[in-house]
Amino acid sequence: MKLYILAVGNKMPDWVVAGFMEYTQRMPREIPIHLIEIKPDKRGSKQNEQLLLAERERIQAALPSACYIVVMDERGKQFTTIQLAETLIDWMRNGRDVVFVIGGADGLHRDIKIMANEMLALSRLTFPHGLVRVLLAEQLYRALSIIRQHPYHRV
């Protein structure tokens, strides 16, 4: 099983890159996290709908085939870390790769949300999309630590 984080945004600050790499490097070899960056559309004189439509095309083209699609959205389901670990076990049993889609500054086009198998929220708060990468990578690592009974997660 592979985990993908497909994220709109390709020029992240150093702290985002360092934080993301910290947790992806800790992942076990058999369940790696792969980052797919989508170049955001330039705002210019474009309306929000035009931006999201252009990004939708890039996202759909970059989605790995036959993946279980999880859209990150503040209106999605909220899990505890234990629930995320249990869900990760289910995904592992299913055998499909999982792709987490993170929108850019303007969010995600509704078509991407409709095609998702699931919508997940890290919080009801709105976070910068770069920070979501780091938080998601850490939570995936933490969930695997729970599954493997590694002492990283303390109750």
Q: Which descriptors would you attach to this protein?
A:
155 residues, Alpha/beta knot, five-stranded parallel beta sheet, 5 strands, 43% helix, 21% strand
The stretches of 5 or more residues where confidence is low (pLDDT under 50) are none
CATH homologous superfamily annotation: SPOUT methyltransferase, trefoil knot domain
First-residue to last-residue Cα separation:
27 Å
Estimate the helix proportion, in percent. 40-55%
Would you report the number of β strands? 5
Instruction: Tell me what the CATH architecture is.
Output: 3-Layer(aba) Sandwich
CATH topology: Alpha/beta knot
Order of helices and strands: EHEHEHEHEH
- Please give the count of helices: 5
pLDDT averaged residue by residue? 92
Task: Kindly provide the name of the CATH class.
Answer: Alpha Beta
Spatially, the strands of the biggest sheet line up as 2-1-4-3-5
Strand content: 15-25%
Secondary-structure-derived class: alpha/beta
Shape descriptor: globular
Indicate the radius of gyration in whole angstroms: 15 Å
Organism: Nitrosomonas communis
GO molecular function: rRNA (pseudouridine-N3-)-methyltransferase activity
Protein name: Ribosomal RNA large subunit methyltransferase H
Family: Belongs to the RNA methyltransferase RlmH family.
